Amino acid sequence: MLLEYDWKQLKSDISPEQAFYIILLLIFWETVRTEQDKGEEILFCRENVAAVVRSVPDYDFKESILQISERVAWELLEQEKNAEDVKVLMSWLHRHLRQAWKAGALRQNSLSMQRELCVLAEREGLFTTTPDGIKALLGALFEGVHFSDMLDMCSGMSYAGHELWERLAAGNAETFYTGEEIEPVFCSIARAWLYLSGEKRCKVIRRNILEPVTGGVAEQYDFITADLPRGTNRPLVCDDTDVRIKGFRNKKIYADWIFIEDMLGRLRQGGYGSALVTTGGLIRENEKQLRQQVIENDWLEAVITLPANLYANVHTMTELLIFHKGKPVERQNRILFIDISRFYCRQSRGAWELSIEGINAAREAFCEFRQLEGISVIRERDELNRETVSWKPLSYLTQTDTGARTLKLEQAASIVRGAQLKPDEIRVSEGGVKFINVKDIQNERILYESAENVDETRLIEKPQFRIREDDILLTSKGTVIKLAIAGEPQMVSYISENITILRINRRMYHPYVLYDYLQSEEGRRALEGIQSGTTIRILSNANLKKLDIPAYPMDVMEKVGEELRRNRMEFDRQQRELTARFLAQKQKLEQELKNGLKKEARQDGENISESQHEK
């Protein structure tokens, strides 16, 4: 707690980044001084840092500390307030670490403080580290897996990867850890603390994985893990000389798939790979060919959907891909899809933690390779969606194996994405027609009264966008899918580009039966399963067309559908009456309050007049 207090004190006067480097360097410096039994207090400055580490025999450690020292803006410590804060922190560290040294736990305490500092810095958004819940999940899934070499791609400061390596390699003195990281200072921090930990079977390499690999034989590993960088996934121009994407036909490739191809290219036969990615890589049309190649090679063993908001300051969904270049016979040509997105608990404001229940459910499904109702499903590779080659678990968990008949949505309805108008084409006026957008669909109702008015001349030639009775409207863009079914339109209205109309073929389906299904938990999950995008979720017409919906006998569906229609109309009628009654009563009560105030004011006036008259 004292470290957190000093962190807050220091970063209130200087930037969080400088506070991080200064405190981290102080921890390393005082750890070395304590081991050298330096009892006297000396000034914390660039020259003294260099002097203290000069006597350390390890060259990499000395270079790493000096590189971290270069990140410190030493002139800030010449200011009296900052110098005093550092002096107080240094005195506390000196006492604390000497006590730990006497107890034989110096380096353990030093490492603990480093990790605590990283948590504090992550909250400030300085960097992103693998959450504890995900580290626990990886440990549970791969416990018992034997390997000799582990590669930690995008290793950062190596705290998370090394922790996983220690757990999986426990009792095996023949294993080796390699971290790969592009950021020089992170490499330096990792090398410094790995040296202090006394671990001789570890190394950290600086490497830009996105640079083309033009030849040579890459070093092979039994186990590779990667937590891909958040917020930096972008399309890159394909390099024809890069052997990792040889034969890839598109002009551009997203960064996440370069990392994945790099991993697969360096994974030994029989080896395991795990990659933490955002949802886009599982469904993006651009890399469909690469997903198909992985499936044909039978390297994908499982995909696990994790809860959102597990990473500090990151709100996109995370998926865990598990590759295996040596599946046992019973798992060959099959993929396990797992969804534990609902297993979370709130850790702090804006951050969630993967729950123990979720970890146990994923471990049971993966280790036993079996289906758990509502959590996991096994699909033959030939059962994957051939049009999208989607790896998204929700796409397959919503497909039931009950034997019930289904049909594609495009067989029951025409699917129309709304009108795309330029800002200068939207003419707000008193007259015109209504232009329905996402904000105008609330609580299963179309709010015509709040919609914008636009000039109909821009839309009159686009009748397919005009709302008709029994049309089902759903939002095609946004974080939450909203739905509404149109009764008899109150006024001429058209849909915007962020709305999709499902216009039902009455010879094939009843609109209220379809609406009831899409609003159900099963229907919602089916819709979420075909969404694309990470931050902004998209429901494309192509994916909607291939959505499976239940098939019922038409006579039964007609009867049930009309009953659902009557129920909906009666519900809407009662809701309108209750709302009107509530508002009328509210207005009456508010008027009583106003009348009370007026009466009180009159009485006060009369009292004042009487008082003046008496005088």
Mean of pLDDT: 88
Q: Return the structural class.
A: alpha/beta
Distance between the termini: 70 Å
Principal-axes geometry comes out as globular
Helix share of residues? Answer: 40-55%
Number of strands: 24
Radius of gyration: 32 Å
Total DSSP helices = 19
Structure description:
With 615 residues, the protein is an alpha/beta fold. The mean pLDDT is 88. The longest helix has 61 residues, at 554-614. Helices cover 42% and strands 18% of the residues.
What's the structural blueprint in terms of helices and strands?
Layout: H1 2-11, H2 16-35, H3 46-54, H4 59-70, H5 80-102, H6 106-123, H7 132-142, E1 149-153, H8 159-168, E2 176-181, H9 184-197, E3 202-206, E4 221-227, E5 235-237, E6 252-254, H10 255-265, E7 267-278, H11 280-283, H12 288-297, E8 300-305, E9 318-324, E10 334-339, E11 344-348, E12 351-354, H13 356-367, E13 376-380, H14 393-397, E14 406-408, H15 409-412, E15 413-417, E16 433-436, E17 441-442, E18 445-446, E19 452-454, E20 472-475, E21 483-485, E22 493-495, E23 499-504, H16 511-519, H17 521-529, H18 541-545, E24 548-550, H19 554-614
Parallel strand pairs: 1-2, 1-4, 2-3, 4-7, 8-10, 16-22
Antiparallel strand pairs: 5-6, 7-9, 8-9, 10-13, 11-12, 14-24, 15-23, 16-19, 17-18, 20-21, 20-23
In short:
Helices cover 42% and strands 18% of the residues.
Keywords:
single chain, 615 residues, alpha/beta, nine-stranded mixed β-sheet, four-stranded antiparallel β-sheet
